[in-house]
Automatic annotation (TrEMBL):
Keywords for this protein: Cell outer membrane, Membrane
Major localization class: membrane
Name of the featured protein: Verru Chthon cassette protein C
InterPro entries: N_methyl_site
The keyword Kinase belongs to this UniProt entry's keyword annotation: no
Domain of life of the native organism: Bacteria
Cellular location(s): Cell outer membrane
Taxonomic source organism: Calidithermus terrae
Keyword Ribonucleoprotein part of the UniProt annotation: no
GO cellular component, one term: cell outer membrane
Length: 282
C-alpha cells in the first residue's frame, strides 16, 4: 500500500515564513516611502506658495521705491542686540549691498498729501506712516537663531533637522527726518529702531536669496537720466540709485535626512523689477 504525503515539512514552513516576512518588509518600506513623498509634496506646495507670495511682495515694494541702495553701500540696522537684524554670514548687524544677501530701498509715502507726523481723523484710519518716506530691507536670518530668540507668532517652531536653513525677514522703518528726496537729501545708511518681521520660512542657506543689480541711473552730465551698468561706488545720493533689480528665491527643507530644494535644485523663483518712482532730473 502506498501512502500519499500530506501537509508541509517544518523546513518548508520556515522558508515560507521567511519569504512572507521579506515581502511584508518590502511592502512596508514602499508604504513609508510613499507616505514620505506625499508629505513632502504637500509641504513643498505650501512653502512654494509662501515663497512666491514673499517674492511678489518684495517686487511690489521695489517697483514703487524712490531709491534703491547701490552695490558697495554698508548698512547698519538697529543694534547688535536686536536678533531680527543679525547677518547670517558675519553674525553682526551690518550688511554690505552686493556682498551680503540683502535688498534695501527707500519707499515713497503711501499718501504724499499727508505729513509724516500728521494723523488724519476723517475717512479711513490713517496715521503718520501714510505720509512718511520709509526704509525697507529684505534679508535672511539663520533659522536656528530665530527659533532661539523669537517669541509668539514670530517663532516658526523648533525643527532641529533644519537648523541650518534660513528664514526670510523684512525690515521697515519710517524716515521722519526725510520730507523730500532731492540732491541735498542725505541718504541714511544707519537705521535705528524698529525690527524685522518673518516673511518666509525654510530658505535655502547660502544662495536662497540672490540679487542682481542690472541697471543704475546714469546722468553722464545730462539733465535726464539714462540707464547704465551698476558698478560699485562710494557715491550715495539720489542719483546713484539702482533702477532695475532681479532677485531669486529658493527654499529647502530636510526630511528624514534627505534635503529637498524647491521649486527645483537649479530652478529658483526669479523676479525682475523696475523702480518707477526714481528721481530722473537734476
Amino acid at each position: 500500500m502506498v501512502y500519499k504525503r500530506q501537509g508541509f515539512t517544518l523546513l518548508e514552513l520556515l522558508l515560507a515564513s521567511v519569504i512572507t516576512l521579506l515581502l511584508l518588509g518590502l511592502v512596508a518600506q514602499g508604504l513609508r516611502s510613499s507616505g514620505d513623498t506625499s508629505r513632502y509634496v504637500q509641504s513643498s506646495q505650501t512653502m512654494l506658495e509662501e515663497l512666491r507670495f514673499a517674492g511678489n511682495l518684495i517686487g511690489d515694494y521695489l517697483s514703487t521705491a524712490a531709491f534703491i541702495y547701490p552695490v558697495g553701500v554698508t548698512l547698519t540696522l538697529n543694534t547688535p542686540e536686536s536678533y531680527t537684524v543679525r547677518n547670517p554670514l558675519t553674525n553682526n548687524n551690518t550688511w554690505t549691498v552686493g556682498t551680503d544677501p540683502i535688498i534695501a530701498a527707500i519707499l515713497s509715502p503711501r499718501d504724499p498729501g499727508v505729513k509724516c507726523s500728521e494723523t488724519v481723523s476723517s475717512g479711513p484710519p490713517r496715521t503718520g506712516p501714510q505720509g512718511c518716506y520709509r526704509f525697507m530691507a529684505v534679508y535672511p536670518l539663520k533659522r536656528s537663531w530665530v527659533v532661539q530668540n523669537a517669541s509668539g507668532a514670530e517663532n516658526p517652531g523648533s525643527d532641529p533637522e533644519n537648523n541650518d536653513k534660513w528664514a526670510l525677514y523684512i525690515y521697515e522703518r519710517n524716515l521722519s527726518g526725510i520730507t523730500d528726496l532731492n540732491e541735498r537729501t542725505v541718504i541714511p545708511t544707519a537705521i535705528t529702531g524698529s525690527s524685522g518681521n518673518l516673511l518666509a520660512d525654510y530658505i535655502k542657506p547660502g544662495d536662497g536669496l540672490t540679487v542682481g543689480y542690472e541697471k543704475c541711473l546714469d546722468f553722464e552730465g545730462k539733465d535726464i537720466a539714462s540707464l547704465g551698468p551698476c558698478n560699485p561706488s562710494s557715491r550715495i545720493d539720489i542719483y546713484s540709485s539702482v533702477a532695475r533689480v532681479s532677485f531669486a528665491l529658493a527654499g529647502q527643507v530636510t526630511m528624514k535626512g534627505k534635503s529637498y530644494t524647491f521649486p527645483g535644485p537649479t530652478q529658483p523663483l526669479v523676479f525682475q523689477v523696475g523702480a518707477r518712482n526714481l528721481v530722473i532730473r537734476k
